[in-house]
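Same chain as my last thread, 150 residues:
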Amino acid sequence: MNSDSFMDAAIQEAQLGLAAGGIPIGSVVVKGGSIVGRGHNLRVQQGSAILHAEMSALETLGRQPATFYQDVTLYTTLSPCSMCSGAILLYKIPHVVIGENRTFMGEEVWLKSRGVQVTVLDHPQCYQMMQAFINGTPQLWYEDIGVERA
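reply #2:
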């Protein structure tokens, strides 16, 4: 598999989340050229406060020693928020590949300042998926990013 196929897998996760009535953000964790974890935003489906796509993908890995994360790459369809960026830093994940950051600019500067390699693809499908979702369900989007909107 290559970088494009890993982002395609993250997009598939996002589509699964949307099809289940959730927020279309997906993520995969890659180690040694293979996907070892995958997930999508599950806040709506599980009534969760924390299961953003990145957290969901990390959760599928189960308990791992700190050294496990030293050579993984996290792919995510949208720029990671403060919470997800904190998990990336906690586990010292060295590389994050982001589908798009025009819809939402997460903590990329913070990640870079702490030595994380951040690659932004500006993937049109990631952007279009988020824009369609936000236009259709703005309140749910604002809830997910912790913003109160009337």
